[in-house]
Write a structure and sequence with these properties.
about 325 residues; alpha+beta; Serine Threonine Protein Phosphatase 5, Tetratricopeptide repeat; Alpha-Beta Plaits; 3 domains; about 50% helix; about 10% strand; SPOR-like_sf; signal; SPOR-like_dom; peptidoglycan binding; Sporulation related domain-containing protein
Amino acid sequence: MKKIITVVLSLFLCTSIFAAELTAAFVTAEAAKKNSVDESVTYLKSQISKMTSQAEKRATWIFLASLQEQMAYFDDAQKSYAQAAAIAAGDVEGMPKKSNEQIVLDAVRCALSSGDYATADSYLNSAVRNSKNANVQAYIKLYTQWSALCKADDVSGIQEPVVMLQAYLKVDSMAAVKPAVLLTLWYVTGDTSYSKEITKLYPKSIEASIVKGDAQLLPTPFWFFVPKSGEAEQGTGSIAMPEEPKQTATQSVTTAPAKFTKWQLGLFRTESNAKLLADEVKAKGFDSYITTETRASGTTYYIVLVREDKNGNVADRLRSSGYDCYGVE
């Protein structure tokens, strides 16, 4: 009898283990242990298909999208956010809380970052536009003007969005996005009154860090190709750098070898856009070229790179010329 009970108990425990719900908290923790971001992404996608709980699936799609966005995989990120928003389920324990309206706005932001304003507009014109949430409505208005800026072919095309953004500064209901509105106006007009207002009213914001030069805007199609009526000049940075030791007469001065062999300037879905940037920096004396990368989603990106030179100061020269860049070994 004891033997029978033992066998039955063992079978019950095994069944319980295999029947246990796969949770977003567990899957995301396992993804963090992978050796690379691409491995984490592949693992997360494989686990989502095994989940039976819609809420857990939704939470995992959100995590995957945020990971893809942080790595500048904007096209993939907007699709993952859209997958999450399409699931009618609530939040789950141990994961960030987000409404479906917020997720749709995340998808809009990523679509704009990849230069896909048509997809951004489709999201903005979905049910989210009927939201009763004031902050959601503020972001809808902001992103609508960002989309309008994306569509502008020249400076004349940005006039109407600029007027709308200026009007938003005077509306209390737009307070949630005011730092972003100010940053946009500063960026497209070069008017320092906007940058001064950012550092005065929002000194600890990411927008203030960008204005000061402590942070850089990612070189995405949205920020790079929007026509500008003036040049927005960043500060040189407010973070104090340690002084270099002084050389004595007997010490020889050597230049440390460059850590990176090339520098990435931008990542585009359209080859012509990548070529515009590559040709522009080449005309300024940099050794630029384009390479491609096809992601697991099947999307091919065109990456603009600049080779390091023997002096090892290409990154400094690029940034002095107004181009943000990221080292690639």
